[in-house]
Amino acid sequence: MKTHLQSANDNERSDTLLIFLPGAYLKPEEFEREGFISAVRERHLAADALLVDADVSYYYDQTLSERLHADVIEPQRAKGYTSIWLVGISIGGFGALIHELARPGSVDGIVALAPYLGRRVLGAEIKKAGGLRAWQAPTGPQPDEEPDRKLWPFFQQYLAPKPSQDLPPLYLGFGLADRFASNHKLLADALPPGRVFTTEGGHDWPEWRQLWRNVLDVLPLPSLGRARQQSATRFPAAASRASSAMPSAIAA
Q1: Which residues contact 18 (CB under 8 A, 6 or more apart)?
Q2: Residue 240 exposed, middle or buried by CB count within 10 Å (0-12, 13-18, 19+)
Q3: Within 45-168, where are the H helices?
Q4: pLDDT tens, 132-147?
Q5: Are 181 and 175 a contacting pair, CB within 8 Å?
Q6: What is the pTM of this model?
Q7: Nearest CA to 111 among 95, 131, 123?
Q8: Which pLDDT band, with edges at 50, 70 and 90, does 246 fall under?
Q9: What single string gives the DSSP state of each residue in 193-251?
Q10: Are the CB atoms for 65 and 102 separated by under 8 Å?
């Protein structure tokens, strides 16, 4: 995977890294063009940004998790990053989540903006059952091995009174008119209110820009200008809720 690093500080590498995964048919440099990197810098956060060219071919051949881990995450850990977050848009959010399924605990946090969360028919089954709190994952042989069959049981782990410390914090943002919003709302019910962000609008950059800025205001990321040994971290303030083939119905 090709990557491009944007440092938070020209004179020093941060201990924290944000890895950005684009949507389908989007280019990683669009994160920079759309103000995602400048939003980090405006907040004086000690978090470097790594733009990853994770195009749809990795989803078609189901090698996303393998390549992301081997080509990106492991090498960045070796360079000294002690805290790594995945930030994904649409299918990039899906990629961040299925990577956690494949490599539990390998990252320190996930931000999923308007993520593809699997087939609507499965979401409809969960909604009919009364939501994630009531739904029981089927046991026994399944009709297929699509990742979403494992994704929803994974989300239920966030419902535990005391989720495992190995479970990375998950922040969700989506537009209320997003074409995937019905599934987003199911996931939102499993997360603390301060980790769910909504905005008017659908599935496009204006909504994603606003959501990123809102999420970024509460992410527990270190600030520039503080001693490393103090491990200074901004803690979230009260936040308003403002198969073998690539999954279908994804354009971005």
Answers
A1: 40, 47, 48, 49, 50, 85, 87
A2: exposed
A3: 57-60, 64-67, 74-78, 91-102, 120-128, 148-156
A4: 999 998 887 777 778 8
A5: yes
A6: 0.88
A7: 95
A8: very low
A9: GGGEEEESS-SSHHHHHHHHHHHHTTS--PBTTS-GGGT--PPPPP------SPPSS--
A10: yes
Q: Are 177 and 118 in contact (CB under 8 A)?
A: no
Cβ atoms < 10 Å from Cβ of 128: 10
- HSE toward the beta carbon, residue 10, CA cutoff 13 A: 0
Q: Give the span between the Cα atoms of 159 and 179, in whole angstroms.
A: 25
pLDDT at residue 142 in the model: 72
Instruction: State both tokens at 199.
Output: 């905005």
Structure tokens at 164: 């495992």
As a whole number, mean pLDDT of residues 113-137 equals 94
CA–CA separation, 88 vs 188, rounded Å? 16
Task: Summarize pLDDT for 13-71 with one digit per residue, the tens.
Answer: 899 999 999 999 999 999 999 999 999 999 999 999 999 999 999 998 889 999 999 99
Tokens 């009260």 map to which residue? 238
